[in-house]
Amino acid sequence: MDRTAPAPTETTVVALGCFWDVEGAFGALDGVVRTTVGFAGGQASTPTYATIGDHAEAVRVEYAPARLRYATLLDRFWSLFDPGLTPAKRRYQPLLVPQTAEQADQAQASRADAIRRDERAGRVEIGGGFSAAALRHQKHTLRRYEDVTAALRARLPGEQAFARSPAATLATGYVSGHRSPDRLADDQGRLGLPDDAIATLRTAARRHGRWSAFMQAERAA
């Protein structure tokens, strides 16, 4: 996957709470190439995890438009959005941050549809910039699984490459429980991981599995 990542790609930014789980939820989708956690939606300069200011935790999603439509990413967003959950802090504010005029039109339309279903969807903000978080925050969930990360790092030139690795992105989807372990039979060759690391992904996916809620989005991708 790291050697054959598709090009060209497009990007968008979403925020739905803690960015580590959101990174896994979007990284699990077919057609997503890379994910980067960071901060969006605020005016404070140089936000960090400790000094986030008025920003929200967010994820930049890089995807292959030939394989994945922006509309499918919006479907994933709204499947994760809980209208009954009011964030206790600004850092967990839900956001859609379109990167093109076409994305902006679709984001506005999707929010309007969501509001017709539940007016509380109106608290989702649209717009803003994006600032990447420090490298130690990238692929944070995956870092808990040392055999997987060691196998990935052995073939990558450094920490930046690990953070941007398509294989690490997909593996994060598994360990976060957002991609069915049944997909590993097809994904093992693309991931290029040894059998013990694949076994770790399967165990984690089963333990944390939340993939059933996203099967409709998977089929639409």
Written overview of the protein:
There is one protein chain. This protein is of the alpha+beta class and 221 residues long. The protein is 40% helix and 14% strand. The chain has a six-stranded mixed beta sheet with strand order 5-4-1-3-2-6, covered by helices on one side. The longest helix is centred in the middle third of the chain and has 17 residues, at 101-117. 43% of the residues are buried. Residues 215-221 have low confidence and may be disordered.
In short:
The chain has 221 residues and is α+β, with helices and mostly antiparallel strands. It contains nine helices and six strands; from the N terminus they run E-H-E-E-H-E-H-E-E-H-H-H-H-H-H. A six-stranded mixed β-sheet has the order 5-4-1-3-2-6, covered by helices on one side.
Beta-strand content bin: 5-15%
In round numbers, the mean pLDDT is: 94
Order of helices and strands: EHEEHEHEEHHHHHH
Radius of gyration: 17 Å
Characterize the biggest β-sheet: 6 strands, mixed
With strands numbered from the N-terminus, the spatial order across the biggest sheet is 5-4-1-3-2-6
* Range of helix content: 25-40%
Structural class of the helix and strand makeup?
Answer: alpha+beta
Please provide the count of β strands. Answer: 6
Number of helices: 9
Shape estimate? globular
Quaternary structure of the protein: single chain
C-alpha termini separation: 18 Å
